[in-house]
Amino acid sequence: VQSLGQMARLAPSLEKRLKHGQLRSRELCEVVSALQRSKFFDGGLFEVLAAELRRAFDRRSLSAAEVITTIATLGELNAYNQRVFEAACDALEKELPRLPEALRLRLDSALKQVNHNPSDSFVRILRNVVGPGSDRRQACPMFWRGQCKWGPKCKLSHDSSSFETTMESGAWRPPSQSGGKSVGFKQSSDLFKADRCGALW
Predict the structure, then answer these.
(1) Are the CB atoms for 80 and 88 separated by under 8 Å?
(2) Cβ neighbours of residue 40 closer than 8 Å, sequence gap 6 or more
(3) How far apart are CA 140 and CA 166, in angstroms?
């Protein structure tokens, strides 16, 4: 669909399919893109589309990039729906620390465009400026207990900003939640195994 006329002819059947939940999550994103291309706006269609988008966001059936592109497009269409944007932010919150900077900036711009105000923790993570060379991995729980045996070879971050971001995103898991033997014991065991086969030195 490229033109306003094409979308106008398609809209009634599309609205019916939306009401019956016959479109998959990625097809919903394609509908939003088609609406933008054709500059088509219909209140009834957008109402049922918004309901389906909320369900898709709640199911976490779309990637972060797809969610951001969709709400940014809705903003450009002046089709803001508070509940849709809230569902999108809920779906994105745990992904924020891992988002590429370009996506973070686009998301921030989309929220500002429609004056949507997510939670304070969401805003802090989203607008946490990550400079060149900054560590964007999740924080190492053992390092923050002074027990990480891997040092610079650790796959997790020892950077203080990573610790704060991981905490705010809700992704922090203390060592006590690892189960079984202590993480320190496991790290020592793994280190010994790696040392025996010469993987570390």
Answers:
(1) no
(2) 4, 7, 8, 11
(3) 10
Q: Packing angle between helix 101-113 and helix 82-92, nearest 10 degrees?
A: 160
- What was the pLDDT predicted at 176? 58
- Residues 110/80, Cβ–Cβ less than 8 Å: no
Query: Cα–Cα distance between 36 and 32 in angstroms, integer?
Result: 6
Contact 74, 81 (CB under 8 A): yes
How many CB atoms within 10 Å of residue 9?
12
Tokens of 94: 């745990």
Q: With left for phi above 0 and alpha for psi between -120 and 50, is residue 84 left, alpha or beta? A: alpha
What pTM does this model have? 0.62
Q: What is the pLDDT of residues 2-23, one digit of tens each?
A: 788 888 899 999 999 999 989 9
Q: Kindly state the DSSP code that residue 173 receives in the 8-state scheme.
A: -
For 176, the enclosing helix (H) or strand (E) is: none
The C-alpha atoms of residue 184 and residue 178 are separated, in whole angstroms, by: 11
